Amino acid sequence: MKSTIILKSLTWSDRGPVSCIGESILGNASANGYVDVLSKPKIEFLQNSLFAYIGTSFTFPACKAVSNPAAVITLKRGYKKMVAPRFNISANSITISKVQLNDEGLYICKAVNFLGSDEVTVQFKTKPLEFLQAPPNFQNIIKGETVSLSCSAYGNPTEMAGKCTYAKTYWDKGDEIKSEVEKNLTIFNVTVAATQSGVYECHIKQAESIINKKIYMNFATIESSILNTTQKKQLISWLSRDKETINFALCESVSSYHSTDPRSTCGSKTKTLTIIKDVEGCIFGGYSTRKFDDKWQTVENSFLFDFNKSIKFEARSPEHANQCSYSELELDYGPCFGANDLYTYYDTHPRRPYPIIYQSKVGNSYNDHGVNNGTLGCSANREISTMEILYAN
User: What is the pLDDT of residues 255-264, one digit of tens each?
Assistant: First the structure.
């Protein structure tokens, strides 16, 4: 008996072992073999563009080819030579030390056997020296803290240098200040401790490339005896806007009916903070860019806040900027925040000769995405323990 296997249209995946087994009443026999497929090279390289930072060492992905018999792989660089020791070819890959701008160009991988050849061209580009990480351009920080500012960049740290400078304003020339430098294989980092308001600048240099980053630090003050440090930090984050310094001085502190009327001392102030602590210990208030005694307190960038819930209530759209209605009560008002969301007055009744909160229900002119968030603080219509009016100075 004779049996024949015929394989047609062979592909690379058809390679592998085969077996032939014969059986009869007298016994059986078997034989094993291997199907080998000859093929011209096919290079497996998925990327056609590669990028590296100037000054770093970069290794190309290995150039691999599927073929039988094994292909001879050669690597070359377009129309230029790869000169040692910066260029090193090993294990079908190229390593470039201290990458330079003129290393850009085309790099070619070619695989050849007696059945044919395959070739792949890769474009190599460099990236300029740039910051990997740097602080924001402007920061408001609570006064008295020390802030660590760090700037880092990719490169060859052994050939990089860095420093930090300080100036009082953007227009002053900075003087070098103490900083710390940290290096690892590919990242250079310079760090400085910021302790006062002004402009801090990171400088990082490699060869002829220099990058700079300016950071304006404002050490904010909020002259409130009601708020603790954590609450002041929270308020600063709510107040922070691009390149706007935050410094609030105390205009008036009110703790009883016989205290000075804040309208007489603070009425003309704009950009005011009203911070209220009621007799139950709840702390809340509002910020407005209008005059303190203005009836229309709902304006863009104004807001109410509640530290018990850690919530900031933004002003709604202009059509909700209703006028405070304190005139109807014929009472001494102040302050009032739009449509009676929050407004206070002085009750002249002899049994209640103290500042009192008439209304503190969010949802008219201030709310969170149109949702009524209920009462500010602990409860409505209660006595004020202390009320502070601060103004931007």
Answer: 755 456 677 7
In degrees, rounded to 5, the angle at the alpha carbon of residue 148 between the alpha carbons of residues 143 and 150 is 140
3-state secondary structure 196-251: CCEEEEEEEEECCEEEEEEEEEEEEEECCCCCCHHHHHHHHHHHCCCCCCCEEEEE
CA-based diameter of the chain, in Å?
125
Domain that holds residue 107: 39-127
Portion of the chain with pLDDT greater than 90, in percent: 40
Residue 312 belongs to some domain of the structure: yes
Contact 125, 53 (CB under 8 A): no
Q: Is residue 16 included in any domain, yes or no?
A: no
Q: What are phi and psi of 81, to 5 degrees?
A: -90, 155
**Residue 269, CA distances (Å) to 136, 290, 292, 301, 314 in order:** 31, 8, 6, 16, 21
Domains held by the chain: number: 3
Decide if 20 is inside a domain.
no
Is residue 86 domain-shared with residue 167, that is, in the same domain? Answer: no
CB 151 within 8 A of CB 213: yes
Residues of the chain scoring pLDDT < 70: 1-3, 242-243, 256-261, 292-300, 316-375, 377, 379-382
